[in-house]
Amino acid sequence: MRTFIRGGRLIDPSQSLDRVADLVIVDGQIEAVQSPDATGPAALDASSDHAIDARDCLVMAGGIDVHTHIGGGKVALARLLLQDLTDGPESEFLPSPTVAAQRYLQMGYTSCFEPAVLPCNARAAHAEMALAHGLDTGGYCLLGNDDLLLQMIGDGVPQVMVNDYVAAMVAATQCIAVKVVNPGGINAFKYNVRDLDVDTPHPRYGVTPSEIIRTLCRAVYEIGLPHPLHVHCSNLGVPGNIASTIKTIEAADGLPIHLTHVQFHCYGDEGPYGMSSAAQQLVRAMQKHPNVTVDVGQIMFGQTVTISGDTAHQFANHRHAKPRKSALVDIECEAGCGVVPFRYRRRQFVHSLQWAIGLELFLMIDDPERVFLTTDHPNGAPFTSYPHLIRLLADHSFRETALAEIHTDAAAASDLSGLDRQYTINELVAMTRVGPSKILGLGDTGTLRPGAPADVVVYPQRSTWDQTFAQAKYVLKSGRCIAGTDVPSTGSGRPQVSTAAESLHRTHRVDLSLDKSAWKSIVRRYPAAGSSSLGRLAISDDEMRTQLGSTLVNHAPRPRQR
C-alpha cells in the first residue's frame, strides 16, 4: 500500500529536518522525503492508494509516552475504589484501556509504556494493555522490593547471578525495561519501617537503597537493556527530599539512570511553609552527571487519583485524600500498592509550588532529549492535559497569566517568573518523539527517516499550541490511517478513530537470550522467596499472540557485559 502526504511542514530533529516537503509511505514504512516539486516515482501521488493534503499542517512521528499508568492491578483497584466518582470507562482520569487509546490517538500519540508491571501481575497487565487498540505498548518489570533480590544482594552473591535473575524476570514478564520504586522501602514497610533513606539498612536483609540502586543499575547495563534503570526515588513528596534524590544519582556510579516523576522528588525544606523548590539543585546535578535522564510528572490543577507501588508514602499521604478514602495493599513477597484520590488546588501553597517546580524543571533543563513530557498519569494529572502543558512550555505570556493565578506565596517562592524560555516546535518533537525512542531503544520509531515504521501524525496549525496538539487531523499507524478529525466515524459511534485501530496492538519487549543452566537455577530458587512458581509466572510468546491478542515487537539488547 502506498500513501502520499503532500506539502506538510515535516519536522524530525533526529535528521535536522524542518521544511515543507512530501512524505511517501510504502507498505507500512517511510519510503522517502521529497521536495514538493521533485520529479520521479516517489513524487507522483497519482499512483498512490491514499493521498493526504497536509498543506498548512505539521507532520511528525507519533508521540511516545515513556511513563503512563494505563494497565495493571493498581489501575483496576483504583477503578473499584472510585466507582462513585468516575464515569465508568469514560472517566477523565481512569479511562478504560480502549478509551485511553482513543484519547491518545486523537492527540497524536501512538506508543505508551506502563512503568509498573509487577511480575505476579504481568499477565493481567498485558491483557489490559492489549485492549488499547491502535497503540503500541510495553511494560517495565518492577523489581527492588522482592524478597529474592534483596536476599541475594544481602547475601553478597556474585553480580552475574543478580544479572541472570534480572534478565529472567524481564524475559518472563515480556517487558522492555526495569523499574524500582522506593528501593527496599516498600519491603521495609512490611516490617513497620515508615521511612528508609538512601543509606539506611533494611531491617531484615541489611541492604541499603543505595546498594539496591547500584546493583540494579549495573545489572540493567550489563544484560544490555537499552533503557536505563527507571527509578522512583526514596522519600516521595517529602520536603527536603532533594538530598536523597542526589544520593540516588550518585549511587548509580556513573551508569545510565532514569529518574521518574522528578517533580515529586525535587523539594527543599526552606521558607515559612517548610517546603521550597530544589529545581536548580537537580539541574546542577544533571549537568554534573550526564548519565541522568528524567521525566517530570507535572501536576495540573483538578481532581485525579494517585496510584503507586510506594505503599509507605501512600500510607503517609492517605490523610490528604479527596474524597476521604484510600486503599493500601501489600502484595505478597514482591511489592505493594496504594490508591489515594487527590484534588490539586490552585489556591493551595503546596500544590501551587509543585506546579511551579515541574515547569521550572522543564524550562531549566537545556537538552530536550534528557527531559520527557509526563504527568505520571493519573498521579499528577490525566494525560489529556498534555496540550495545555505544551502551551505552558511554548507560550511565555500564557504561562505568565497562569502564574498570576496560583497561590501568591508559591509564586513568590518560585523562579518561574524569571524564566522566559519558550520551547520551539523542534524541541517539543525532540522531547515527545525522538528522545523517548532513543532512551527506550525503539530504533527508528519516533523519526521520519526512510525505513522507519510509518507512525505519522498530521496536525493542522491552529492559533495556539494547545489547540494544535489537542486533535490530530490524521494519525497513521504502520502506514494505516486509524484516527484523526478527518477520519470517518466508526460504526461503533466513536468519532475520530477508525475501526482499523481495533485490529492493531503491539507489545515492545527486549529479546533477551538466557543461559539455560542459569534459568533452571533461578526457577529452583524463586519459590523459596517468591510467592509463586517462576515456571507458571512466565508468559510465552505464543500466549501473548493467541491468548492476550498482541503482536510482539522484538528489540535487540546491547551486547551483554560480563
Describe this structure in words.
The protein is α/β, with parallel strands linked by helices and 562 residues long. It is 33% helix and 22% strand. The chain contains 19 helices and 23 strands. The strands form 4 sheets. Strands 6, 7, 8, 9, 10, 11, 14, 18, 22 and 23 form a 10-stranded parallel β-sheet that branches. Strands 1, 2, 3, 4, 5, 19, 20 and 21 form an 8-stranded mixed β-sheet that branches. Strands 15-17-16 form a 3-stranded antiparallel β-sheet, sandwiched between helices. Helix 5 (159-172) crosses helix 7 and helix 9 runs parallel beside helix 11 (349-364). It starts with a strand and ends in a 7-residue tail after the last strand. The model has no long low-confidence stretch (mean pLDDT 93).
Topology:
Elements lengths: L1 E11 L4 E10 L2 E6 L15 E4 L3 E5 L1 E3 L7 H9 L15 H11 L1 E9 L4 H8 L6 E7 L4 H9 L3 H14 L4 E5 L3 H5 L19 H15 L5 E4 L9 H10 L5 E3 L7 E2 L7 E2 L1 H10 L3 E4 L6 E7 L2 H7 L9 E5 L3 E10 L4 H16 L6 E2 L13 H9 L1 H8 L4 H6 L11 H16 L15 E5 L4 H6 L3 E4 L2 E4 L22 E5 L5 H14 L4 H4 L3 H6 L4 E5 L7
Parallel strand pairs: 1-4, 1-5, 6-7, 7-8, 8-9, 8-22, 9-10, 10-11, 11-14, 14-18, 22-23
Antiparallel strand pairs: 1-2, 2-3, 5-19, 12-13, 15-17, 16-17, 19-20, 20-21
Helix pairs in contact: 5-7, 9-11, 12-13
